[in-house]
Amino acid sequence: MKATQISKENGVVKFNIEFSADEFKEALNKAYLANREKFQIDGFRKGKAPRKIIENFYGHDVFWDEALNGLLSTGYYDALREMDLEVIAQPSLESPEIKEGEPVVISGSVQVFPEFEVENYKGLEIEKVETKIGEKEVKAELERVQKSQARMETVEDRKTEMGDTVIFDFNGSVDGEEFAGGAAENYELVLGSGQFIPGFEEQMVGKETGEEFDVNVTFPEDYHAEELKGKDAVFKCKLHEIKKEILPEIDDELASDVSEFETLAEYKKDLKKKLKEEAKQTDESVMKDRVLEQLYLNNEIEVPAVMIEAELDNMLYDMNQSLQAQGLSLQQYTEWTGETIDDMKEKSRPDAEKRIRTRVLLKNIVRMEDIGVTDEEIKDLMTEFGAQYGMDAEAVMGMAGPDTENYFREDAQTKKVIDFLFDNAKIKDPKAEKKAKKAEKEKKEEK
After folding, report:
1. How many CB atoms are closer than 10 A to CB 266?
2. pLDDT at site 82
3. Range of weakest confidence among 189-193, 237-241, 292-296, 326-330
4. Which of 96, 156, 194, 240 is most buried (most C-beta within 10 Å)?
5. How far apart, in Å, are the Cα atoms of 170 and each of 184, 212, 215?
6. What per-residue confidence (pLDDT) applies to 447?
7. CB 18 within 8 A of CB 4
8. Do residues 5 and 15 lie in contact, with contact meaning Cβ atoms separated by under 8 Å?
9. Which of 312, 348, 318 lies closest to 330, judged by CA?
């Protein structure tokens, strides 16, 4: 197989893919072997007629389409690699002229990833983001750790209060009729969590274990179930258990339980160091996002509609996967919200356009700045990815298939080009500038 790029104009590449006479001959034989069972010819058992006999009966070109499809199934992608093309749509292919004993040349055209010269991408101006970590932040983290080590204790000597965890049965009805999803037994609820509709949890305060009572509420007008919107409901409840959260003391014992340190002082020192490192990474991530925002705003570009449509499909797929993880389907979601798939796509279109335009800008900067990645960098990314699933880089490559390396190569390039833009950005520090102006003013006044 030999691929030749003929021309490139307005984002469309014209090309020829040439297969040798022997390659086409072999493909014809494979097509015959794969399809001979479909032909019944007198004098031969089904599937046993020679190829020449079938061709005489059904035409000499009976296996041509199948043979060409077989050649293109791998040959087309080999040709793209040979021509170093990144396509964004399916190709348009012309039917070739086929002569026995001669090469088969397939001509085609395909839309490719847009290339252009990006402007205004160096010296992007953003404000400095710097999160300060002090005693307040360390205290908040200690309280989070304290809460993670809490235990639940059953309450016997008092009525329910906000913040308690209650175990209860409930059975809801509207106009005396029970409704789907309105009943449960031994349900666990944290009062004040806002898990139930407004007014429900407040009416559970002041109840005793074993008590039976009614909760009267009105479903919100924007409730997801159409038949319950704005309806008055009565929930018959029975309280089985009241539990409260018991927090451990923030002391040396807690520190030794959750860390390698023996004292609270050592643990707090280490926490502060880690919080500073995390804050620094988060601040840098926020600033990089702002750099990308400035890049996007500085470059008004048009991108092929097919790329935006593909991104919308990807976003819809991701949403479907997320819903399935919650035990829901896309169809259920559309029924609850009243939105159609087209409605959802149109709502997501601005975000899809922004994503694609940013991606196109970044890839063109990669090309312009000749930002490459090493095999070691790609392997590091694979190792980092695999560590999340207990796999090494080789296992990741084997699991995901031949395009895995390209995926991680593009990921590595994206990270490097964003770092490049950030390193070349102008980061303004309003606080430092204000301080400098004040110092300069004071200096002039002294003179």
Report:
1. 15
2. 94
3. 326-330
4. 96
5. 6, 10, 9
6. 60
7. yes
8. yes
9. 318
**Residue 140, both tokens:** 């908040």
Q: Tell me whether strands 426-428 and 125-127 are parallel, antiparallel or unpaired.
A: parallel
Judge whether residue 280 has pLDDT over 70: yes
Domains identified in the chain and CATH numbers: 2-111 (3.30.70.1050), 151-246 (3.10.50.40), 264-428 (1.10.3120.10)
- Cβ proximity of 62 and 102 under 8 Å: no
Is the distance from CB of 366 to CB of 392 less than 8 angstroms?
no
Give me the pLDDT at residue 169, please. 98
What's the Cα-to-Cα distance from 318 to each of 32, 120, 340, rounded to whole Å?
A: 41, 33, 17
Q: Is 143:225 a contact under the CB 8 Å cutoff?
A: no
Note the pLDDT tens digit of each residue in 120-155.
Answer: 999 999 999 999 999 999 999 999 999 999 999 999
pLDDT confidence of 400, banded at 50, 70, 90?
low
Structure tokens at 77: 């992608």
410-411-415-416 Cα dihedral, nearest 10 degrees? -30
User: Which residues, listed in sequence order, are joined to residue 153 by a DSSP beta bridge?
Assistant: 244
DSSP state of 87: B
The position carrying tokens 């944290």 is: 190
Note the pLDDT tens digit of each residue in 253-279.
999 999 999 999 999 999 999 999 999
Taking the whole predicted model, whether its pTM rises above 0.90 is answered as no
61 φ, ψ (degrees, to nearest 5): -100, 15
Distance CA 111, CA 104 (A): 23
Long-range contacts of 17-22 (CB under 8 A, 24+ apart): 17/72, 17/75, 17/76, 17/79, 17/105, 17/106, 17/108, 18/103, 18/104, 18/105, 18/106, 19/71, 19/75, 19/103, 19/104, 19/105, 19/106, 20/103, 21/101, 21/102, 21/103, 21/104
- Pairing of β 232-246 and β 165-174: antiparallel
* Cβ contacts of 146 within 8 Å, gap of 6 or more: 247, 248, 250, 254
Catalogue the E-assigned strands of 220-284.
232-246
